Amino acid sequence: MMDPRIQKLAKNLVSYSVNVQPGENVLVEMIGSERDLIKAVVEEIGKAGGHAFVQLTDRTVLRSMLKYATRESLQTWAEIDLNRMKQMDGYIGIRAGENVNDLSDIPEENMKLYNSLYSHPVHSEQRVKHTKWVVLRYPNASMAQLANVSTEAFEDFYFQVCNLDYAKMDRAQDALADLMRRTDKVHISGTGTDITFSIKGIGAEKCSGQKNIPDGEVYSAPIRDSVNGTISYNAATLYNGITFENVKFTFENGKIVEASSNDTVRLNDILDSDDGARHIGEFAIGFNPYILHPMKDILFDEKIAGSLHFTPGQAYEETDNGNRSSIHWDLVLIQRPEYGGGEIYFDDILIRKDGLFVIPELEGLNPENLK
């Protein structure tokens, strides 16, 4: 008998996140070996009158493909999958790999080609911009290890987070989205961080379960050349299977002019992928009440209560500052007291301190009001 929590999640993905309508084509991609959720999702798409198409991917096989990939093979691969994506109305991506470091020893040049020739056109340009999509992880022993808890405890945490009342969260986000749309100057301060920029005229978008599960953020983007100062991120992050810690950026007129981490050479190699990689494409504030600590999984970490992320690379079309890049790397700064605290000011007014919103219209996004 299938776990009822899986059935509830599948129904939410199909009916709420992607809102599948009769006759719509939906690509369901599973990276990993889990099958119960994907079967439940396919059944829910069928019940909604949609057409499910399934892609099963093994990350160890993907590793072998990328190890010997060439420019020509990646272009052909992208052409095939781009044609399929263009025929889709929706996309549900489920990730459940056993080893987050499976791609860590792929040659850097191959990963850059994969990101620019395959991932960027197929996902960043087509899937993100032209389908109703949602992406999520699925709990397994590997994720539990990253979270430093037992597999059973992580499963309980996962379903608590993923089956949250996202419609309630959506309503609570209205005030923050409206405020960000009216804001010009942003000032972020904290341990090793003092940074200013403008979001005037860029807009803001709510994230409440329609694009990611788990969810819980409102995002915008800085005016491309307005960023000045230094930011020190305090959540470890994975990029192309490599762990980066203590990432620190210094900006001058929008450009990252200094970058350091535990692997400064590789960090700068990524930032040199193209011109847009040294500029910021997203600024977002996270507030999922159940996600408190980083686990090197960005779909969870960028939603941490009391966090923000400041993202080098491609801007989203909905809050477009004109930045274009083959990368989009969400890097997270947690500002709750146990992580060093910090402040966010909008037009010189303190709106969040030590991870909690301090003006009345935003208090609905504090943890006690979202659980």
Bulk shape:
globular
- Uncertain runs: none
Biggest β-sheet strands, sense, barrel: 8 strands, antiparallel
Count of DSSP helices? 11
Oligomer: single chain
Instruction: Find the structural class using helix and strand composition.
Output: alpha+beta
Let me know the average pLDDT. Answer: 93
Counting DSSP E segments of at least 2 residues, the number of strands comes to: 20
**Strand line-up in the sheet with most strands:** 14-13-10-6-5-18-19-20
Task: Give the helix proportion (percent range).
Answer: 25-40%
| First and last CA, distance | 29 Å
Strand content: 25-35%
Supply the number of structural domains.
2
Return Rg in Å.
20 Å
Cofactor: Zn(2+); Mg(2+); Co(2+)
Pfam families: Peptidase_M29
InterPro entries: M29_Exopeptidase (IPR052170), M29_N-terminal (IPR035097), Peptidase_M29 (IPR000787)
GO molecular function: aminopeptidase activity; metal ion binding; metallopeptidase activity
Highlighted features:
371 residues, alpha+beta, Thermophilic metalloprotease-like, 2 domains, 8-stranded antiparallel beta sheet, 5-stranded parallel beta sheet, 11 helices
Give the structure's gist in a few sentences:
This protein is an alpha+beta fold and 371 residues long. The protein has eleven helices and 20 strands. The two termini are 29 Å apart.
